[in-house]
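Protocol step 6 of 9: fold each sequence in the batch and record its structure tokens directly after the sequence line. For illustration, a two-sequence batch is reproduced in full.

Sequence one:
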Amino acid sequence: MAHSDGLSVPLSPILVIGIAGRIGSGASFVRDKVLQSLRTFDYEVDIIDVTELMDRVSHALGVSELQNIDDHIKTIDEIKGNDNAQRIRRLQMIGNSFRWRFGNAILAALCVTDFIAPDIAERQDGLKCRKAYIIDSLKHPQEVRLLRQLFGGLFWQIGVVASDMTRSNRLQQRKGFDQVAFNFISDEDANGIEERDEDKTKKNGQ
């Protein structure tokens, strides 16, 4: 069934939708449009915020590692004096540490084990009512692969793309980024995981 805004929504009892996009791409806007569209088809919708998830489970990294992350952020000249940029960099580093320690699909796995699976188990309607889970947001291909393995055709991925200029302007207006901070955070957003993957592969001798 297609909605007037062009989004085609299969009328399945359960949908899992992953939003993916680089920082400042407009992923939150797309998430909200998907939420509205799903509700027009009588879906009950839960949004799973991966940022909030990382805040909740960050203690699993240990006090020492979290302190090392905080100490390192204070030394980064490109984002000094910008609380928003420092907060985002901290989340990037926590996410990368989780993937390094527990595997690249760990955050998607936690979305399933801590939110989706318990919610499905507690439902009393026998899956007669439609339910959708929007994961905001996915950052690694292994996260997508895991969700496809678990949910098959009930999982949809939506990628959000915007030019560097558009992303830079948004972050300057909304987060107070200057161009130096944007370049640093954007580069880390694009390259941090890949660099860790490459380094891990070399250390494993593969």
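Sequence two, same batch, same settings:
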Amino acid sequence: MSNNVEMVNAWLYNNALNAEQRARNEAVRRSRAEAAEARAKKKEKNAREAAKNARAAAKSANNQARRAAVERSAAEAAAARAARAASRGETSSRRNKTNAANRAAKKAAENAKKAQANAKKAAANAKKAQLNVLIENARTQLLNVIKNNKMNKNAKKKKGTSIFRKAALKLHPNHHRGEEDLYEERFKYLGSLHDEFQKFINKSG
């Protein structure tokens, strides 16, 4: 009889130890997930700010390009008027004005070209920032799934796959002809996030 009591007590003691260990493991896992979520939220906020700034830069660059185009058009018109005056054999003063107008037209053309290049660069930066926001949103959603104690393992895996597929549709290089390189890197990174998520869920069981 005493042996049975001892066995029961040992079993209860071991169960208590196991439960305590599981609780500690769960607390550690949850703490790590919360820390990762905080980092992801910070990255998402920074990415949104970068996207906002990039859009503002693109808008400013486009405005500069438009102004440069107007200046170029005006300078070319002035150059054309001066050329017509020169062809009529007017004074050397008029010819000097023609040369000045030609220089102004050339300068305006250079400024317009630079402004267009800046606008293109700003637009590219805005696109990169927007893609980074999309990645951070997916990361945050996956972390929220990991933290959700009301979902079982299979439900978490299913939800994670849904999040991945939704983001993948927007990032797949085949959907963005001419920008494959830009999307390829982020698409692969999204895939690695999903793989890490699935491994974590399988391991946490």
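Proceed to step 7 once all outputs are recorded. Observation for sequence two: The CA atoms of residues 68 and 112 lie 4 Å apart.
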